[in-house]
Design a protein that fits this description.
seven-stranded mixed β-sheet, 154 residues, alpha/beta, Positive transcription regulator
Length: 154
Amino acid sequence: MRNINVTINTRNTFVRESLVAMVNDLSRDDMRARFSWRNNDLSDEDIIICEVIPGEIYLCNTLIKNRKKGSSLIILHSYDQLPEDDFMINCLKGVIFVSLKTASIPQLLAIIKSELQHCMDPSATDATSRELELRQLPASCPVAVADRCGARYS
């Protein structure tokens, strides 16, 4: 059985417990999610779900910058629109942005499922194929994937 380390960093208890339930519902028999709410070290985490407050998206968080290589980072935000590509900071490259205002439960489930699959078999799902999977979500899905060229919006 593979352990998947998941950190959920949000002050909103409802959102946190909902995300825990989603991860648990999507966990297969051969994986077990271990949850953490700590903010002091992300170097062992496979999936990091982090809510940002207004303005925080423009700052490079050293914890995020020094996260485990190959880990998945899902940023929950309340922005009406994300910053332009030129203003996206480097430590948020390869990040999945999800709007708390408009994301639906099925959309969040699809994102989490994709990231869990990546954790179980990273070689089977490289960054490009994961991005394509996310882009195949319905057009109304408020997801953006930041890459080396900047944020591209779905």
